[in-house]
Specification:
The protein is mostly helical and 108 residues long. The chain contains 4 helices and no strands.
Protein backbone atom coordinates (compact mmCIF):
# COMPACT_ATOMS: atom_id res chain seq x y z
CA UNK A 1 0.00 0.00 0.00
CA UNK A 2 1.44 3.35 -0.98
CA UNK A 3 0.05 6.54 0.48
CA UNK A 4 0.61 9.70 -1.51
CA UNK A 5 1.90 12.64 0.47
CA UNK A 6 1.26 16.30 -0.31
CA UNK A 7 4.08 18.21 -1.96
CA UNK A 8 6.94 19.22 0.30
CA UNK A 9 6.92 22.69 1.81
CA UNK A 10 10.70 22.89 1.50
CA UNK A 11 10.64 25.35 -1.41
CA UNK A 12 13.86 26.97 -0.17
CA UNK A 13 15.72 23.65 -0.49
CA UNK A 14 17.62 22.72 -3.65
CA UNK A 15 15.66 20.40 -5.95
CA UNK A 16 17.84 17.38 -5.07
CA UNK A 17 17.26 17.93 -1.34
CA UNK A 18 13.53 18.31 -1.93
CA UNK A 19 13.47 14.95 -3.75
CA UNK A 20 15.36 13.26 -0.91
CA UNK A 21 13.02 14.80 1.64
CA UNK A 22 9.95 13.67 -0.29
CA UNK A 23 11.36 10.15 -0.66
CA UNK A 24 12.15 9.94 3.06
CA UNK A 25 8.67 11.20 3.92
CA UNK A 26 7.16 8.61 1.58
CA UNK A 27 9.15 5.80 3.23
CA UNK A 28 8.03 6.96 6.68
CA UNK A 29 4.40 7.20 5.59
CA UNK A 30 4.50 3.75 3.97
CA UNK A 31 5.97 2.24 7.14
CA UNK A 32 3.24 3.81 9.27
CA UNK A 33 0.55 2.53 6.89
CA UNK A 34 1.96 -1.02 7.04
CA UNK A 35 2.49 -1.09 10.82
CA UNK A 36 0.59 -3.60 12.91
CA UNK A 37 -0.81 -1.89 15.98
CA UNK A 38 -0.57 -3.76 19.27
CA UNK A 39 -2.42 -2.72 22.38
CA UNK A 40 0.05 -2.95 25.24
CA UNK A 41 -1.99 -1.75 28.19
CA UNK A 42 -4.97 0.29 29.30
CA UNK A 43 -4.66 2.39 32.42
CA UNK A 44 -6.27 5.47 33.96
CA UNK A 45 -4.54 8.63 32.75
CA UNK A 46 -3.91 9.72 36.36
CA UNK A 47 -1.64 6.72 36.82
CA UNK A 48 0.42 7.13 33.63
CA UNK A 49 0.56 10.85 32.70
CA UNK A 50 3.41 12.59 34.57
CA UNK A 51 2.28 15.41 36.87
CA UNK A 52 -1.40 14.88 36.07
CA UNK A 53 -3.82 15.46 38.93
CA UNK A 54 -7.59 15.72 39.34
CA UNK A 55 -7.61 19.28 37.94
CA UNK A 56 -5.71 18.43 34.73
CA UNK A 57 -7.59 18.51 31.43
CA UNK A 58 -5.63 17.11 28.51
CA UNK A 59 -5.90 18.89 25.17
CA UNK A 60 -4.98 17.94 21.62
CA UNK A 61 -2.25 20.56 21.35
CA UNK A 62 0.35 22.47 23.29
CA UNK A 63 -0.68 24.10 26.56
CA UNK A 64 -2.02 27.63 26.02
CA UNK A 65 -3.32 30.38 28.28
CA UNK A 66 -7.09 29.96 28.67
CA UNK A 67 -7.75 33.15 26.70
CA UNK A 68 -6.09 31.67 23.58
CA UNK A 69 -8.36 28.62 23.42
CA UNK A 70 -11.21 29.35 21.01
CA UNK A 71 -14.05 27.61 19.21
CA UNK A 72 -14.17 23.84 19.39
CA UNK A 73 -11.04 23.53 21.48
CA UNK A 74 -12.48 25.78 24.20
CA UNK A 75 -15.85 24.01 24.07
CA UNK A 76 -14.13 20.61 24.35
CA UNK A 77 -12.30 21.74 27.48
CA UNK A 78 -15.49 23.12 29.02
CA UNK A 79 -17.47 19.97 28.17
CA UNK A 80 -14.69 17.83 29.64
CA UNK A 81 -14.87 19.89 32.83
CA UNK A 82 -18.65 19.47 32.99
CA UNK A 83 -18.34 15.73 32.27
CA UNK A 84 -15.86 15.38 35.11
CA UNK A 85 -18.22 17.21 37.48
CA UNK A 86 -16.32 20.49 37.74
CA UNK A 87 -18.48 23.45 38.64
CA UNK A 88 -17.54 26.85 37.17
CA UNK A 89 -15.67 28.06 40.26
CA UNK A 90 -13.70 24.84 40.53
CA UNK A 91 -13.01 24.88 36.78
CA UNK A 92 -11.62 28.43 36.89
CA UNK A 93 -9.38 27.40 39.76
CA UNK A 94 -8.19 24.40 37.72
CA UNK A 95 -7.55 26.64 34.71
CA UNK A 96 -5.40 28.95 36.85
CA UNK A 97 -3.51 25.98 38.31
CA UNK A 98 -2.99 24.60 34.80
CA UNK A 99 -1.60 27.92 33.58
CA UNK A 100 0.66 28.28 36.63
CA UNK A 101 1.97 24.73 36.19
CA UNK A 102 2.84 25.10 32.52
CA UNK A 103 3.71 28.80 32.44
CA UNK A 104 4.56 30.27 35.81
CA UNK A 105 3.52 33.90 35.91
CA UNK A 106 1.52 33.45 32.70
CA UNK A 107 4.59 33.93 30.50
CA UNK A 108 4.18 32.00 27.26
Amino acid sequence: MTTTLPASRGDALPAAAQRLQQEANQVACDRLAKAKLVLVDVAPALSVVPSMDETTILTSGAPLPWERYTGGQRRAILYAAVHEGCDRCRFESAARAYQDRYAPGGAF
